[in-house]
Design a protein that fits this description.
With 377 residues, the protein is an alpha/beta fold. The chain has 7 helices and 16 strands.
C-alpha cells in the first residue's frame, strides 16, 4: 500500500430540511389548526480512528465528502427524517487542521470513537410552532440551516514509542529489520528508505514497544533539503530517540562526529521540543571496525561529541549488542509510561505492571471495582 501522510479534503455536512406550512383537514373539523412538521437534521461528518490503517491514501483521490440533507417536514405533524451521517476512518495519529487558517481542529488519538468534524444543519420549523392565542392559523415556516463546510488538511504523525534518526545509510533500516518483524527495503545507497516504517519489538511475552524508522536526514533538512524533513513530524510523539551513527563510513573523508552534530543541529532548528526529547547514541557497524581499534574509535567519538548520555555499541547486521539495547529501551519506555499515570500510582487498589498496564491488587474484591470505568464491562 502506498504510504501517504498528507492530504487536503473538502467536507460538507448536510443541510437541514425545511419546515412545512400545513393545516389539518378532517371531516367535520372546519378549523383543524396547523400541523406542519419540522425539517430533519442534516447529516454530520464524523471522524473515527482505525488501528488497521497506517496511511492517508484513501483521501488522496477522494477529496470531497458530503453528509445527506435532511428531509423536509410534511403535514399531519410529520417531521422530516434526518440525513445520513458520513464516517471517515483515519489512522491513529492524524492531525486535522483548517486548510485556510492552519488552526488545529482535532487529533485522532482514540480508536473507534466517533468525533464530529462538521455538524449538520438543524431542520426548519413547521407552522405548528407559530400557533398562539392571537395567531390561530399561522402560515409561517422556516427553512433548514446550512450544514458546516470546511476545507481541512490531514497530516499523519505515526504513533511510536521509539524513533530512529540519523544520516542516510547509517543502518536504521537494518536495525529495525533485525529487532522487529518490519521488512523495509535495505540497500547500500543513500535514501533507500522513502517513507516511515513501523516495527513491533517483543522483548518477552506481552512485553513490546513500537519503533519507527524514518528517511535519513542531511544537513539543511530543517530548511527542506533531502527527504527526512518531511517525516520529522513522525518523531514528535515518540518517548525516546535513537541516534544511529555509522562508525565505518565508506569514505574515509567522512567524519562521523561532524555528521552526528549536524543531525542534532537540524533537530534543534526544526523543533526545540523534539531536540529536548531523551536521545541515546547507537554506534552502528562496529563489526566493520577491527576489534583492536574499536575501543579507541568509540572513546574518540564520545570525547569529540561531548556526549554524556547512554551510548550503545552494536552491529545491526550481525545483531551484536541489539538485545541489550532493546531491553534497555523497554525499561525506559515502561518507566515513562508509568510516570504518565500519576493518578494511578496513588491508587492503592491497583498494581502497575512493568509495561505500565494496570492490575487490581490481590486484596481488592471484584465488587470494589464495579463502579470503576477502567474495569467496567
Amino acid at each position: 500500500m502506498k504510504f501517504v501522510d498528507e492530504a487536503t479534503i473538502d467536507i460538507a455536512a448536510g443541510d437541514g430540511g425545511n419546515g412545512c406550512a400545513s393545516f389539518r383537514h378532517e371531516k367535520y373539523k372546519e378549523f383543524g389548526g396547523p400541523d406542519g412538521g419540522d425539517g430533519g437534521r442534516g447529516g454530520h461528518v464524523f471522524v473515527i480512528g482505525d488501528l488497521a490503517l497506517n496511511t492517508l491514501v484513501d483521501f488522496r483521490f477522494s477529496r470531497r465528502f458530503e453528509g445527506q440533507r435532511g428531509e423536509h417536514g410534511k403535514g399531519s405533524d410529520l417531521f422530516g427524517a434526518k440525513g445520513s451521517d458520513v464516517y471517515l476512518k483515519m489512522p491513529i495519529g492524524t492531525v486535522i487542521a483548517d486548510a485556510e487558517t492552519g488552526e488545529v481542529l482535532m487529533e485522532v488519538l482514540i480508536p473507534d470513537e466517533p468525533v464530529v468534524l462538521a455538524k449538520g444543519g438543524d431542520g426548519g420549523f413547521g407552522n405548528m410552532h407559530f400557533k398562539s392565542s392571537t395567531n390561530r392559523a399561522p402560515r409561517q415556516k422556516t427553512v433548514g440551516f446550512t450544514g458546516e463546510r470546511k476545507t481541512v488538511k490531514l497530516e499523519l504523525k505515526v504513533l511510536a514509542d521509539v524513533g530512529l534518526l540519523g544520516m542516510p545509510n547509517a543502518g536504521k533500516s537494518t536495525l529495525i529489520s533485525a529487532v522487529s518483524n518490519a521488512r523495509p527495503k535495505i540497500a547500500d545507497y543513500p535514501f533507500t528508505t522513502l517513507h516511515p516504517n513501523l516495527g513491533v519489538v517483543r522483548v518477552a511475552p506481552e512485553k513490546s514497544f513500537v519503533i519507527a524508522d524514518v528517511p535519513g536526514l542531511i544537513e539543511g533538512a530543517a530548511e527542506g533539503a533531502g527527504l527526512g524533513h518531511r517525516f520529522l513530524r513522525h518523531l514528535q510523539r515518540t518517548r525516546l530517540l535513537l541516534h544511529v551513527v555509522d562508525m565505518a563510513p565508506f569514505d574515509d573523508a567522512v567524519d562521523p562526529v561532524a555528521q552526528a552534530k549536524a543531525i542534532v543541529a537540524e533537530l534543534k532548528k526544526y523543533d526545540k521540543a523534539l531536540h529536548d526529547k531523551p536521545r541515546w547514541l547507537v554506534l552502528n557497524k562496529l563489526d566493520m571496525v577491527p576489534v583492536e581499534a574499536r575501543a579507541a574509535r568509540v572513546a574518540d567519538f564520545i570525547k569529540r561529541m561531548k556526549y554524556k548520555g547512554p551510548v550503545f555499541e552494536i552491529s545491526a547486521l550481525t545483531r551484536e549488542g541489539c538485545e541489550t539495547l532493546m531491553l534497555s529501551i523497554f525499561e525506559h519506555v515502561a518507566k515513562v509510561a508509568k510516570s504518565e499515570q500519576p493518578h494511578v500510582a496513588e491508587d492503592p487498589r491497583f498494581d502497575i505492571e512493568t509495561d505500565g498496564s494496570l492490575k487490581p491488587h490481590k486484596d481488592v474484591l471484584p465488587d470494589d471495582l464495579a463502579n470503576d470505568p477502567r474495569f467496567s464491562s
